[in-house]
Fold these 3 entries.
Entry 1:
Amino acid sequence: MESAFMADMAGRLGRLGLEVQRFDFPYMQLRVETGRKRPPDRLPVLLEYFSGLVAKQPNDGLPLWLAGKSMGGRIASMLVAEGVAKEAWVLGYPFHPRGKPEALRTEHLQQPKGRIDIFQGTRDPMGNQSEVGGYSLGTDVHLHWLEDGDHDLKPRQRSGFTQASHLDAVIKVLEARVSATA
């Protein structure tokens, strides 16, 4: 949660007037405590942890949007697919593990119970534009392509784009989403 990317996005979302709560999954908390790299927890643990955080949110009638980067976005999208929340914003979805395009992570994206906006770099090694174009995704899954972006939405310098300009584009879309639900 302390990465420069997450801090930047939290600030950008905050400037939209949103209350942002960042967190680390338990395995990342252990990494911070011990200084030792650990693999991610199993999917059920990640889902339970994130849904537990959602359950602790006040029922104040305000909209609740889930968001995440990569695996965090995958878990957020799965919770929306299950109906735990109505909308997820995903930054760099891992459609498949690196180098394993046959191991798709798309089943829950075929008929989610809410809206999922995925912001994806066109050259993301975990799901580039040509690969993802052939996937069967539900009508509530909205793909937003960021030209020449990688998994961190970062383009190559020669592309003429910057990661900051891509994040500006993300915020423009999210600002419209927030306005549409206000």
Entry 2:
Amino acid sequence: MSTTAPQQSPGTHLDRLDGFVPADAAGVVIVDLDALAGNWRALRDLVAPAACAAVVKANGYGLGADRVIPALCAAGADTFFVATLAEARQARALVADATATVYVLDGVLPGSGQALHDAGAIPVISSLPEAKEWAALAPSRNEPMACAFHVDSGLNRLGLSAREIRALASDMHTMDRVQVRLVMSHLACADDPGHEKNTQQLDVFRTLQPLLPSAPLSIAASDGLMLGPDYHLDLVRPGYALYGGQALPGRITPVKPVVEAYARVLQIRELAPGQSVGYSASFVANRITRVAVIAAGYGDGLPRHLSAATGQTAGHVAFGGRRAPIVGRVSMDLITVDITDLEGHAPDRGDWAELIGQSISLEDVGAACGTIGYEILTRLSPRFARVYLGGGDGTGTQGT
């Protein structure tokens, strides 16, 4: 099959890519910005009257913050969460509305306070030393420093402990010089709706609330917002769900897929019984086996744990909606796929193999290599060409 008419899985965007994928592109990641914007609107409507922010850290979950943030702005988002100061600077430059809010989850690193302030970012304060350093930058009590407080309600990662909260409550020198715009926490087990820790953390958060300044409250991210209105509070902070992720077992988040990924077939080979393929000869053919060699590997973000040895099952790719197993070791640049059983659907040199799409979800890839879809999404390599469909405003424009 020629490269100008690539084999397609039903319902993919490949049929819209003529002229947008470079001829020398070995792989392509397709990002549907209109679906991204639609997902934010769907979550906004689901949690109303609570507000809906957007988490755009890690380069917009690996999809390109320079495209993701403007699309979310066009959809109506005006509150963004990033992890680092560098991400905050980028987000601030991309957000057209000067009144939009950019929170920095890493908070105030020692000596970074002035740079945070100059960037127009709001740190999420997680410790007493951070609070004191941030407050010290206030010119006076009449010009307090805007921040958010992160309460540790039981995740035991970042967050102000109950002891630190009590200390702050009695430290008027510090509290008079900060303006707390948000009080937030983070759930440890939101991906398990029945886990008792969810209600425990909500109870702890509520118990500590009277000791904290009066401000909007937030505890739910992508999974937490699906736990129901009790967890919506004043603001939810979806990240993975915005990008089409479905990480919550048994509950379908009302979002659509945003990402598809494909890689070219470079060669078709035939193995005789007893021949191996790939490093360490971990897979040995027990029959005449047709193998497609595909231009993707762990250098492109496909974990080595997608590899399958003889008698094992691991990851898959798809051709024309039909799955084919990855066999042998995933290497830096290549995977090898058993296409023997794809009668009538067998690919040829130059065809596209679906890595993520309608037939193989982010969750499928994550489960196949013992991780989660979040990791798969954020590891997609820039070595793959990027094609963006739409603009977040429903115009249907596209470009690379």
Entry 3:
Amino acid sequence: MSEKIQKVLARAGHGSRREIEAMITQGRISIDGTVVKLGDRFEPTMTKVRIDGHLVDLPSPAENICRVLVYNKPEGELCTRHDPEGRRTVFDRLPRMHDGRWVSVGRLDANTSGLLLFTTDGELANRLMHPSRTVEREYLVRVFGEVNEEMVRNLVNGVKLEDGMARFEDVQYAGGEGNHHTFYVVIMEGRNREVRRLWDSQGVTVSRLKRVRYGDIFLEKSLPRGGWMELPLAEVNKLRESVELPPETETVITVEKEKRKPKVQKIRRAVRRHEERVEEERSGRRKPRRGGKPTAAGAAGKTNGKPAGARQGGNRQNGRPNSSRPSKPRTRQ
């Protein structure tokens, strides 16, 4: 049975569908010596697939293991694989893989911190990002300026931006004083700088933005900035079920590894050592390390405290409720 080429390559972990479609448009992908075009399909008889001239493996769906990482992105990191200026990217600290690669589920701009998901399954990434799936993204946002009830109603009812109408599904006040106010806001799509642009439309400026939830996945308060943790099989399958994908049957997490809880200070030191090594490699003071085990194999730690004041509509710290299941926030009227 034939499938679109971008779907096959995305499932094999060579990028999201959008990234692969861009590669096809640029003429970077060929199959059996023929450069492919958008709309071409992959047939079972096709054997040699190349990206930028390099032969790539296309394991069958049964051979792929869907893995999902939760990453706590610090401010200043870029959501790109390679930066020509040598700036740090979100891929620098992820565990290395021999087959396939990590695909980011959406992006966060350089000045935004918080939860970022990565997966080896490009189809899962595509569905989680697609607006038709209405997957909630929740942010902790601190704004500077006077905020009144009319502004909040505007943000919930909808505001016309340069790329169309946009709105928050939910706005919850979380405290503040003077002209500094903190809110939790929920959106259903991931347009470029959408949260910042919505607040800008009301004449207030976002001074801090942090994503605390993607779907039912919350940013754990024990996950330090720059640290990552891999989701166990049950959590991966909940995520897959939410976008109507069949359950995964295998995981790379062993029972012993799942029981072993990493120590906070140990993981923080590992993240710090990794940062120092990357800086040394980029400055030319030492040769890049090849192979070996990842430096931050898991994560635990503390985030930068909790927002001023209590969130209306739920008892919450750093974006995670006390209960094991997330509760849908109530819209402020």
